[in-house]
């Protein structure tokens, strides 16, 4: 018997999707998801009321907590979108997991940046020009912590890695030409029988 290793997909006659196709699909999905996430962030994030002081906006402790809440909402939304997209694409393109993993990691940041831009456009601008000291104005919808942009990618990568651990067929992860061990028993049995 031959010791050639074939994956389940190959036995069923299904070819693995090209890397370009995987990247394009994840890029489009990340762009759309980023827009949706930006709209949700704008809708769910609390408004922060400030007071004009010396040409800038000041905020008291209570309102300052709302600035943190904005970042927390963004991070939670990013985690949710990263989780969903990771599960969808890892399962859908399970025969090309490396391309999926790398694309999710890189394009997750892009999706988060898109969400941030959409949120800023839809939210208040925080412009204080022409306002006298003591006037109230809403803070613009912006992230105070840049680390929140990475949550989407981090969650997506972790979820993809966890799913990969439970894969039955790990051939797509193997180095080309490496011995996966599936054919060792067959070859050994043939040599003993001879």
Task: Looking at this protein, list some descriptive labels.
disordered C terminus; about 5% strand; about 190 residues; mainly alpha; three-stranded antiparallel β-sheet
Given the C-alpha coordinates, what overall shape results?
elongated
Number of strands: 3
What is the succession of H and E elements?
HHEEHHEHH
- Biggest sheet features: 3 strands, antiparallel
Q: Please give the oligomerization state of what you see.
A: single chain
Distance between the termini: 12 Å
What does this structure look like?
There is one protein chain. The protein is mainly α. The chain has 6 helices and 3 strands, in the order H-H-E-E-H-H-E-H-H. It has a 3-stranded antiparallel β-sheet with strand order 2-1-3, with no helix packed on it. A hairpin with a 2-residue loop joins strand 1 (49-53) and strand 2 (56-58). The chain is elongated and about 60 Å long. The two termini are 12 Å apart.
How would you summarize what this structure contains?
By secondary structure, this protein is mainly alpha-helical.
SSE arrangement:
Elements: H1 8-12, H2 19-44, E1 49-53, E2 56-58, H3 61-92, H4 97-122, E3 136-138, H5 151-165, H6 184-193
Helix pairs in contact: 2-3, 2-4, 3-4, 3-5, 4-5
